[in-house]
Specification:
heterodimer; A: 320 residues; mainly alpha; MetI-like fold; B: 302 residues; 14 helices; 0% strand; disordered N terminus
Chain lengths: 320, 302
């Protein structure tokens, strides 16, 4: 077991190096040099060249890469052109908001998708099952931002049920409790939109996993020895059916973080997605590439988590 | 859940490829025919492709015709879906937009299938170091947040239809190569591959003529779903202003009109129709892909 986890961690190293190379390539492909805007335009070309040389602007690519990795490992991911401060500060201000949004969406989708998927599998080909199937197809097919726009127009604007955008109402004195309620109120629409797509996927996955387990011999044995259907499904079948579902849940953390880009843009949610989008519009490439790196690391970790979870909960897995 | 008939399906393919291909096609068609959702998808997509091809004949205005006297008009009998902020006919642009969205979906899928099948087959067949390098590359690509990296790439190489196709293609191949690799691993120790090796065929010939054709069933399913992914991505990127540029209409850049809040709340005809088109075509492709999956290979999991 410990060996398995160690092996998984070792396998992460080449992937990590690969990610860093791609991100580094993107940094170097980005048009313009990020220093021009920082240097006083009155400085002579010679002085500028000396300054750029001092920070390693003229180094060869491999040297630049090693220097960049060295800095990145110590948490120095560069300097934001727009905010005039280290990108790591800007990112840490926004990352929490994205995590709040994604984790809430994850919880919402798991809480709804797993029971619905199980019920749908146990009642295969009934009206309820067909309804769930069509519903999950709709969730899989609707563009996230279009769904968000529909919500804003009909629920937030026409019916005035929810705030249109942002994370908090502006210009109001609020007690902490009121502020929390206000935040939750702002979260309803973006979390629903982001959770919906994920829920559709999870529901289909739970359903097919459950259907597969229900057909196995040990479930038939459980039924044959006279157990109640409820016990067979929820005590015997569900445990095994959920194993692959848990893996998918872990992996979907990555999709949620990535899908948050469009959701955040539509709802002006001040998270990583909005940050990246704004930075691209402002050509703040150091911030863009650093954000991509940070989110890729989160995805890498969630994939690792998925593998470890899978090994921990399923005793049938062999560690070779 | 390893089912017996899938391996039996494949055995006769070697002895008489032509005949079995026909009968596989027949069984697939038969199975699809009983799937109402897949039929719906097929019909909608066929209609959409026809509309895209014959766009000039079924629209009544010039695609980019600007009419400043008639800007932002709600739907009427002359302008079925109203006009946009430059007085262009929304219905006309919607139909022409189908050309862009569908071609982005198709071309990007072709790119990712070519890369994915090639790398998957090579990795699976040769194993060892080649396989490790390819699979670690797949892992790297799988770790990238799809939309985020697409947006960053578009910002760097510039927004255009061709770049969009390239980005979608380059980001979608890893899944296909994983599937192909898994298939190749199970195929390469079969007798017919050993027989072709014994006959002295080169590795390239074995991969191209004997291995790849046998991995096509799951690839077709994923390619179908890949088209949907391409359409969704076109919509998202163009909505953010990093995809197809005006005046060429695409569903995504038509949706971008709703970035303006007054359009979003007051001029539904500018953004709900293109959004609905994206939704319906992706839905149709998903229905069809699901039908194909059931028909071609019941053991593929998501």
């Amino acid at each position: 077991m410990r060996k398995y986890i160690a092996r998984r961690l070792l396998l992460m190293i080449p992937v990590l190096i690969g990610i860093s190379i791609v991100i580094f390539a993107l940094i170097n492909l980005a048009p313009g040099d990020p220093y021009t805007s920082m240097i006083d335009p009155n400085i002579s070309a010679d002085d500028k060249r000396v300054m750029l040389e001092a920070i390693g602007y003229y180094d060869s690519l491999p040297v630049k890469y090693l220097k960049w990795v060295g800095r990145a490992v110590r948490g120095d991911l560069g300097y934001s052109i727009r905010y005039k401060e280290p990108v790591i500060h800007v990112i840490s201000r926004n990352l929490g908001n994205t995590l709040l949004l994604s984790i809430s969406a994850l919880i919402l989708s798991v809480v709804l998708a797993v029971p619905l998927g199980v019920i749908s599998a146990t009642r295969k080909n009934t009206f309820f099952d067909n309804l769930i199937t069509v519903f999950s197809f709709i969730g899989l097919s609707i563009p996230v931002f279009f769904f968000g726009m529909l919500m804003i127009k009909f629920l937030a604007f026409d019916l005035n049920l929810f705030p249109i955008s942002g994370m908090a109402s502006i210009g109001q004195e609020m007690t902490p409790l009121q502020a929390l309620i206000d935040l939750l109120h702002h979260m309803v629409l973006p979390v629903t939109v982001l959770g919906m797509v994920n829920m559709a996927q999870l529901m289909r996955y739970t359903r097919s996993s459950m259907l597969e387990v229900i057909m196995q011999d040990y479930v038939r044995t459980a039924r044959a020895k006279g157990l109640k259907e409820r016990v067979v499904i929820y005590k015997h079948a569900l445990k095994n059916a959920l194993i692959p579902v848990i893996t998918v849940v872990c992996i979907s953390i990555g999709y949620l973080l990535s899908g948050a880009l469009l959701t955040e843009t539509v709802f002006s949610w001040p998270g990583m997605g909005t940050l990246v989008y704004q930075s691209i519009l402002n050509r703040d490439y150091p911030l863009v590439t650093a954000s991509t790196l940070v989110i890729s690391l989160f995805i890498l970790l969630s994939n690792l988590l998925a593998d470890i979870f899978y090994a921990v909960i399923d005793p049938r897995i062999k560690f070779d | 859940m390893r089912d017996a008939d899938s391996s039996c399906d494949e055995c006769p393919t070697q002895s008489d490829p032509v005949q079995t291909e026909n009968s596989t096609l027949k069984t697939v068609l038969n199975k699809i025919r009983n799937n109402a959702l897949a039929i719906f998808g097929l019909c909608f997509l066929s209609a959409l492709i026809l509309a895209a091809v014959f766009a000039p004949w079924i629209t009544f205005f010039d695609r980019d015709h600007i009419d400043m006297a008639l800007i932002s008009q709600p739907p009427s009998l002359t302008h079925w879906l109203g006009t946009d902020e430059l007085g262009r006919d929304v219905y006309t642009r919607l139909i022409y937009g189908a050309r862009v969205s569908l071609s982005v979906g198709l071309v990007s899928t072709c790119i990712s299938v070519l890369i994915g099948v090639f790398l998957g087959a090579v990795g699976g067949y040769f194993g060892k170091a080649v396989d490790s390098i390819i699979m670690r590359t797949v892992d790297v690509f799988m770790c990238f947040p799809f939309y985020l990296i697409a947006v960053v790439m578009a910002a760097i190489i510039g927004p255009s239809i061709l770049n969009l196709m390239f980005i979608a293609g380059i980001l979608n191949w890893p899944k296909i190569s994983r599937i192909v690799r898994a298939e190749v691993l199970s195929l390469k120790h079969r007798e017919f591959i050993e027989a072709s090796r014994a006959l002295g065929l080169s590795s390239g010939k074995i991969i191209l003529k004997h291995i790849i054709p046998n991995t096509m069933a799951p690839v077709i399913v994923y390619a179908t779903l890949g088209i949907a992914q391409g359409i969704l991505m076109e919509a998202g990127m163009s909505y953010l202003g990093l995809g197809v540029k005006q005046p060429i209409p695409s569903w995504g850049n038509m949706l971008a009109a709703a970035q303006d809040f007054s359009v979003l709340v007051a001029q539904w005809w500018l953004w709900i129709p293109p959004g609905a088109m994206v939704f319906l075509s992706v839905l149709s492709i998903n229905f069809l892909g699901d039908g194909l999956r059931d028909a071609l290979d019941p053991k593929i999991a998501e």
